Amino acid sequence: MLHLAAVGPSDGLARAGEERLAGEESARGAVRSERRKEILRQRREELGLSQEDLAARLRISVRAYGNWERGLVKEWTDRKLLALAEALEMSERQCFWLFRIMVDRDPPPTWRASEENRLPDDPAQRDYLCDYAALMEVVPYPSFLVDHRWDVALTNSAFDKLFQSVRPHPTALPDDNFLRFVLFHPDAAAVLEDHEPAWCVPLLAQFAAALEAAPEDEGLRSIRQEVARDPFMEAAYRYGVPHWLATHGAGAAERDGAVRTVRHWDPQWGLVRCRLVAESSRMLDAMGLTRITMVLSTPQGAAAGPARGGAVPHGQGPRLRAVPALED
Length: 328
What we know:
single chain; 13 helices
Protein backbone atom coordinates (compact mmCIF):
# COMPACT_ATOMS: atom_id res chain seq x y z
CA MET A 1 0.00 0.00 0.00
CA LEU A 2 1.31 3.45 -0.97
CA HIS A 3 1.86 6.02 1.76
CA LEU A 4 3.35 9.48 2.12
CA ALA A 5 7.02 9.36 3.07
CA ALA A 6 6.48 12.06 5.68
CA VAL A 7 3.70 10.09 7.31
CA GLY A 8 5.18 6.61 7.00
CA PRO A 9 3.41 3.27 7.29
CA SER A 10 0.59 2.66 9.68
CA ASP A 11 1.32 1.94 13.33
CA GLY A 12 0.18 -1.65 12.86
CA LEU A 13 2.61 -2.24 10.00
CA ALA A 14 5.40 -0.58 11.95
CA ARG A 15 4.75 -2.78 14.98
CA ALA A 16 4.63 -5.89 12.79
CA GLY A 17 7.96 -4.95 11.22
CA GLU A 18 9.53 -4.30 14.61
CA GLU A 19 8.27 -7.63 15.95
CA ARG A 20 9.65 -9.48 12.90
CA LEU A 21 13.06 -7.85 13.27
CA ALA A 22 13.04 -8.54 16.99
CA GLY A 23 12.25 -12.20 16.32
CA GLU A 24 15.06 -12.51 13.80
CA GLU A 25 17.48 -10.80 16.17
CA SER A 26 16.40 -13.11 19.00
CA ALA A 27 17.03 -16.21 16.83
CA ARG A 28 20.45 -14.93 15.80
CA GLY A 29 21.23 -14.17 19.42
CA ALA A 30 20.31 -17.69 20.51
CA VAL A 31 22.58 -19.24 17.86
CA ARG A 32 25.39 -16.88 18.82
CA SER A 33 24.95 -17.74 22.51
CA GLU A 34 25.23 -21.47 21.83
CA ARG A 35 28.32 -20.90 19.69
CA ARG A 36 29.97 -18.96 22.52
CA LYS A 37 29.45 -21.89 24.90
CA GLU A 38 30.64 -24.41 22.31
CA ILE A 39 33.94 -22.71 21.47
CA LEU A 40 35.10 -22.61 25.10
CA ARG A 41 34.10 -26.18 25.86
CA GLN A 42 35.56 -27.58 22.63
CA ARG A 43 38.90 -25.85 23.07
CA ARG A 44 39.14 -26.92 26.73
CA GLU A 45 38.41 -30.56 25.83
CA GLU A 46 40.82 -30.37 22.91
CA LEU A 47 43.59 -29.54 25.41
CA GLY A 48 42.44 -32.33 27.72
CA LEU A 49 41.59 -29.90 30.54
CA SER A 50 38.79 -30.07 33.09
CA GLN A 51 36.87 -27.03 34.30
CA GLU A 52 38.91 -27.30 37.50
CA ASP A 53 42.16 -27.17 35.49
CA LEU A 54 41.09 -24.08 33.58
CA ALA A 55 39.80 -22.35 36.70
CA ALA A 56 43.23 -22.90 38.27
CA ARG A 57 44.94 -21.39 35.21
CA LEU A 58 42.64 -18.37 35.39
CA ARG A 59 42.98 -18.14 39.19
CA ILE A 60 39.22 -18.03 39.66
CA SER A 61 36.79 -20.40 41.33
CA VAL A 62 35.46 -23.46 39.50
CA ARG A 63 31.95 -22.05 39.89
CA ALA A 64 33.02 -18.76 38.28
CA TYR A 65 34.57 -20.54 35.31
CA GLY A 66 31.49 -22.74 34.99
CA ASN A 67 29.45 -19.57 34.62
CA TRP A 68 31.88 -18.34 31.95
CA GLU A 69 31.47 -21.54 29.94
CA ARG A 70 27.67 -21.40 30.30
CA GLY A 71 27.65 -17.81 29.08
CA LEU A 72 26.47 -16.38 32.41
CA VAL A 73 28.73 -13.33 32.16
CA LYS A 74 27.47 -9.78 32.56
CA GLU A 75 30.23 -8.33 30.39
CA TRP A 76 33.05 -9.89 28.38
CA THR A 77 35.88 -7.45 29.02
CA ASP A 78 39.20 -7.48 27.14
CA ARG A 79 40.87 -8.64 30.33
CA LYS A 80 38.62 -11.69 30.65
CA LEU A 81 38.92 -12.64 26.99
CA LEU A 82 42.71 -12.23 26.89
CA ALA A 83 43.00 -14.33 30.04
CA LEU A 84 40.86 -17.01 28.37
CA ALA A 85 42.99 -16.91 25.21
CA GLU A 86 46.14 -17.43 27.27
CA ALA A 87 44.63 -20.17 29.44
CA LEU A 88 43.29 -22.00 26.37
CA GLU A 89 46.67 -21.67 24.58
CA MET A 90 45.06 -19.95 21.62
CA SER A 91 46.98 -18.82 18.58
CA GLU A 92 46.64 -15.27 17.32
CA ARG A 93 43.98 -16.30 14.80
CA GLN A 94 42.05 -18.26 17.41
CA CYS A 95 42.13 -15.25 19.73
CA PHE A 96 40.85 -13.07 16.89
CA TRP A 97 37.83 -15.32 16.40
CA LEU A 98 37.28 -15.64 20.15
CA PHE A 99 36.80 -11.86 20.30
CA ARG A 100 34.67 -11.85 17.14
CA ILE A 101 32.33 -14.54 18.45
CA MET A 102 32.13 -13.23 22.00
CA VAL A 103 31.96 -9.46 21.51
CA ASP A 104 31.96 -8.91 17.72
CA ARG A 105 35.19 -6.91 17.65
CA ASP A 106 38.92 -7.42 17.22
CA PRO A 107 41.28 -8.07 20.14
CA PRO A 108 43.47 -5.18 21.32
CA PRO A 109 46.25 -4.49 18.78
CA THR A 110 48.90 -4.72 21.51
CA TRP A 111 48.19 -8.41 22.19
CA ARG A 112 50.07 -11.11 20.32
CA ALA A 113 49.93 -14.83 21.02
CA SER A 114 53.13 -16.69 21.72
CA GLU A 115 54.37 -18.46 18.59
CA GLU A 116 56.14 -21.02 20.80
CA ASN A 117 53.16 -22.34 22.75
CA ARG A 118 53.59 -25.80 21.20
CA LEU A 119 57.39 -25.98 21.35
CA PRO A 120 58.85 -28.51 23.80
CA ASP A 121 60.41 -27.40 27.07
CA ASP A 122 63.69 -29.18 26.41
CA PRO A 123 66.22 -26.64 24.98
CA ALA A 124 67.89 -29.23 22.72
CA GLN A 125 64.53 -30.21 21.21
CA ARG A 126 63.58 -26.56 20.72
CA ASP A 127 66.86 -25.86 18.91
CA TYR A 128 66.32 -28.95 16.75
CA LEU A 129 62.84 -27.81 15.74
CA CYS A 130 64.12 -24.34 14.87
CA ASP A 131 66.70 -25.88 12.53
CA TYR A 132 64.13 -28.35 11.24
CA ALA A 133 61.87 -25.43 10.34
CA ALA A 134 64.66 -24.05 8.12
CA LEU A 135 64.97 -27.47 6.47
CA MET A 136 61.23 -27.66 5.81
CA GLU A 137 61.19 -24.16 4.35
CA VAL A 138 63.60 -25.21 1.59
CA VAL A 139 61.16 -27.91 0.42
CA PRO A 140 58.87 -26.57 -2.34
CA TYR A 141 56.03 -28.92 -1.36
CA PRO A 142 53.52 -28.44 1.49
CA SER A 143 55.04 -29.99 4.60
CA PHE A 144 53.99 -30.07 8.25
CA LEU A 145 54.78 -31.73 11.59
CA VAL A 146 51.90 -33.44 13.36
CA ASP A 147 51.52 -35.41 16.60
CA HIS A 148 49.32 -38.45 17.34
CA ARG A 149 46.30 -36.16 17.87
CA TRP A 150 46.90 -34.46 14.51
CA ASP A 151 47.84 -31.25 16.33
CA VAL A 152 50.11 -29.34 13.95
CA ALA A 153 53.42 -28.22 15.47
CA LEU A 154 55.12 -26.71 12.40
CA THR A 155 54.31 -25.84 8.79
CA ASN A 156 56.27 -24.44 5.85
CA SER A 157 55.31 -21.65 3.44
CA ALA A 158 54.09 -24.07 0.76
CA PHE A 159 51.63 -25.56 3.27
CA ASP A 160 50.36 -22.09 4.15
CA LYS A 161 49.95 -21.27 0.44
CA LEU A 162 47.97 -24.45 -0.23
CA PHE A 163 45.43 -23.52 2.45
CA GLN A 164 45.56 -19.73 2.06
CA SER A 165 41.96 -19.53 0.82
CA VAL A 166 40.59 -21.33 3.89
CA ARG A 167 38.43 -19.07 6.04
CA PRO A 168 39.15 -18.72 9.77
CA HIS A 169 37.54 -21.24 12.07
CA PRO A 170 37.71 -21.40 15.88
CA THR A 171 38.68 -25.09 16.17
CA ALA A 172 39.41 -26.57 12.72
CA LEU A 173 42.18 -24.57 11.05
CA PRO A 174 44.61 -26.69 8.98
CA ASP A 175 47.64 -25.41 10.91
CA ASP A 176 46.01 -26.11 14.30
CA ASN A 177 44.64 -29.64 13.99
CA PHE A 178 44.70 -31.29 10.56
CA LEU A 179 42.15 -34.00 11.40
CA ARG A 180 39.60 -31.47 12.64
CA PHE A 181 40.20 -29.44 9.49
CA VAL A 182 39.54 -32.40 7.19
CA LEU A 183 36.45 -33.52 9.08
CA PHE A 184 34.79 -30.28 10.14
CA HIS A 185 35.99 -27.23 8.22
CA PRO A 186 33.44 -26.18 5.54
CA ASP A 187 36.27 -25.17 3.17
CA ALA A 188 38.18 -28.48 3.32
CA ALA A 189 36.45 -29.89 0.23
CA ALA A 190 37.47 -26.82 -1.79
CA VAL A 191 41.16 -27.75 -1.37
CA LEU A 192 41.05 -31.52 -0.88
CA GLU A 193 39.51 -33.19 -3.92
CA ASP A 194 37.29 -36.28 -3.44
CA HIS A 195 36.99 -35.00 0.09
CA GLU A 196 34.80 -37.71 1.61
CA PRO A 197 36.22 -40.95 0.13
CA ALA A 198 39.86 -39.90 -0.31
CA TRP A 199 40.43 -37.79 2.81
CA CYS A 200 37.70 -38.18 5.46
CA VAL A 201 37.39 -41.98 5.49
CA PRO A 202 41.15 -42.78 5.55
CA LEU A 203 41.76 -40.22 8.30
CA LEU A 204 38.83 -41.57 10.29
CA ALA A 205 40.38 -45.04 9.96
CA GLN A 206 43.72 -43.70 11.21
CA PHE A 207 41.93 -41.91 14.03
CA ALA A 208 40.09 -45.10 15.05
CA ALA A 209 43.44 -46.92 15.29
CA ALA A 210 44.97 -44.09 17.34
CA LEU A 211 42.01 -44.03 19.73
CA GLU A 212 42.15 -47.81 20.15
CA ALA A 213 45.85 -47.54 21.02
CA ALA A 214 45.30 -44.67 23.49
CA PRO A 215 41.66 -44.80 24.66
CA GLU A 216 42.31 -42.51 27.66
CA ASP A 217 43.91 -39.72 25.63
CA GLU A 218 41.77 -36.64 26.33
CA GLY A 219 42.60 -34.97 23.00
CA LEU A 220 41.52 -38.02 20.99
CA ARG A 221 38.42 -38.48 23.14
CA SER A 222 37.47 -34.86 22.49
CA ILE A 223 37.65 -35.45 18.74
CA ARG A 224 35.60 -38.64 19.17
CA GLN A 225 32.90 -36.65 20.98
CA GLU A 226 32.86 -34.08 18.20
CA VAL A 227 32.50 -36.83 15.59
CA ALA A 228 29.58 -38.26 17.60
CA ARG A 229 27.80 -34.89 17.52
CA ASP A 230 27.93 -34.84 13.70
CA PRO A 231 25.44 -37.45 12.35
CA PHE A 232 27.21 -37.68 8.98
CA MET A 233 30.67 -38.18 10.50
CA GLU A 234 29.34 -40.59 13.12
CA ALA A 235 27.81 -42.78 10.40
CA ALA A 236 31.07 -42.66 8.43
CA TYR A 237 33.04 -43.60 11.55
CA ARG A 238 30.82 -46.45 12.73
CA TYR A 239 29.76 -47.98 9.41
CA GLY A 240 31.73 -46.42 6.54
CA VAL A 241 35.22 -47.05 7.94
CA PRO A 242 34.76 -50.79 8.71
CA HIS A 243 33.25 -51.37 5.26
CA TRP A 244 36.05 -49.38 3.61
CA LEU A 245 38.76 -51.31 5.48
CA ALA A 246 37.10 -54.63 4.61
CA THR A 247 37.06 -53.64 0.95
CA HIS A 248 40.51 -52.07 0.61
CA GLY A 249 42.50 -53.65 3.42
CA ALA A 250 44.18 -52.10 6.46
CA GLY A 251 47.10 -50.92 4.31
CA ALA A 252 44.83 -48.41 2.57
CA ALA A 253 44.71 -46.36 5.78
CA GLU A 254 48.48 -45.83 5.86
CA ARG A 255 49.54 -42.20 5.54
CA ASP A 256 52.89 -42.86 3.93
CA GLY A 257 52.62 -43.37 0.19
CA ALA A 258 48.93 -42.52 -0.14
CA VAL A 259 48.03 -40.76 -3.39
CA ARG A 260 45.37 -38.07 -3.28
CA THR A 261 44.31 -35.00 -5.29
CA VAL A 262 44.43 -31.38 -4.16
CA ARG A 263 43.64 -28.02 -5.70
CA HIS A 264 46.85 -26.07 -6.25
CA TRP A 265 47.09 -22.52 -4.89
CA ASP A 266 47.95 -21.33 -8.41
CA PRO A 267 44.63 -21.40 -10.33
CA GLN A 268 46.47 -22.12 -13.58
CA TRP A 269 47.48 -25.50 -12.16
CA GLY A 270 44.03 -26.52 -10.94
CA LEU A 271 43.77 -30.07 -9.57
CA VAL A 272 47.10 -31.85 -9.06
CA ARG A 273 48.18 -35.30 -7.92
CA CYS A 274 49.47 -35.40 -4.35
CA ARG A 275 51.51 -38.18 -2.76
CA LEU A 276 51.72 -38.15 1.03
CA VAL A 277 55.18 -38.95 2.40
CA ALA A 278 55.29 -39.56 6.16
CA GLU A 279 58.67 -39.70 7.84
CA SER A 280 60.30 -39.18 11.20
CA SER A 281 63.72 -39.11 12.89
CA ARG A 282 65.15 -39.98 16.27
CA MET A 283 64.57 -36.45 17.59
CA LEU A 284 61.08 -36.17 16.11
CA ASP A 285 60.17 -39.58 17.55
CA ALA A 286 61.25 -38.39 20.98
CA MET A 287 58.83 -35.47 20.63
CA GLY A 288 56.04 -37.67 19.27
CA LEU A 289 56.05 -35.88 15.91
CA THR A 290 55.79 -37.08 12.32
CA ARG A 291 56.55 -35.03 9.24
CA ILE A 292 54.05 -35.27 6.39
CA THR A 293 55.01 -33.85 3.00
CA MET A 294 52.48 -33.47 0.21
CA VAL A 295 54.48 -34.05 -2.96
CA LEU A 296 52.56 -32.30 -5.74
CA SER A 297 52.99 -33.38 -9.35
CA THR A 298 53.09 -30.88 -12.18
CA PRO A 299 49.76 -31.05 -14.03
CA GLN A 300 49.78 -32.41 -17.54
CA GLY A 301 50.72 -29.72 -20.06
CA ALA A 302 52.38 -27.43 -17.51
CA ALA A 303 56.07 -26.71 -17.71
CA ALA A 304 58.04 -27.96 -14.73
CA GLY A 305 60.48 -25.48 -13.26
CA PRO A 306 64.22 -26.21 -13.11
CA ALA A 307 65.64 -27.98 -10.12
CA ARG A 308 66.92 -25.84 -7.31
CA GLY A 309 70.48 -26.91 -8.03
CA GLY A 310 70.35 -25.69 -11.62
CA ALA A 311 68.74 -26.42 -14.98
CA VAL A 312 67.83 -29.99 -15.88
CA PRO A 313 69.86 -31.20 -18.89
CA HIS A 314 67.89 -31.48 -22.10
CA GLY A 315 66.12 -34.81 -22.45
CA GLN A 316 66.71 -35.84 -18.84
CA GLY A 317 64.09 -35.81 -16.11
CA PRO A 318 64.21 -36.98 -12.52
CA ARG A 319 65.40 -40.57 -12.10
CA LEU A 320 66.59 -42.96 -9.42
CA ARG A 321 70.37 -42.88 -9.11
CA ALA A 322 70.48 -46.64 -8.61
CA VAL A 323 68.89 -47.14 -12.03
CA PRO A 324 71.26 -46.45 -14.93
CA ALA A 325 70.11 -44.02 -17.57
CA LEU A 326 69.05 -45.46 -20.90
CA GLU A 327 71.54 -44.93 -23.71
CA ASP A 328 70.40 -42.70 -26.55
